[in-house]
Amino acid sequence: MTIEEQLIEYAKEGKLLTHKCTECGYLHLSTAYYCLKCGSKGFEDTILDGVGSVATYTIITVAPAGFEKYTPYAFVVMKVDNTDLRISGFMPNIATPDDLPVGIKAKIAGFDERGILIEKQ
């Protein structure tokens, strides 16, 4: 199974596949090929609970082709709890900034053709 396939399977379970550097312990998203801290190419998989808080977002009301049926939605950047990691994903049914205050608790809720799905906790 490829890393991308593993990432998808864990996201469907509300988890996040990450890579921990075997040299210095620095945590990376699973797409890293070398450690950003020490340059090592050695990693071990680490599975995290996909929970965090909304760092920022953009509300989409005019969607690109193929995504019209999902509007309105927010493209969200979520800071993962207890790490420096940030992931991005889609949060459905967000029409105004009042619907999604920055800092609100959120979690990975699955994966579909849009990518990682994030929902408010």
From TrEMBL:
It comes from Nitrosopumilus cobalaminigenes. InterPro entries: ChsH2_C (IPR002878), ChsH2_Znr (IPR022002), NA-bd_OB-fold (IPR012340), Thioester_dehydratase-like (IPR052513). Pfam families: OB_ChsH2_C (PF01796), zf-ChsH2 (PF12172). Residues 11-44 form the ChsH2 rubredoxin-like zinc ribbon domain. It comes from the Archaea. Residues 49-106 form the ChsH2 C-terminal OB-fold domain. This is Nucleotide-binding protein.
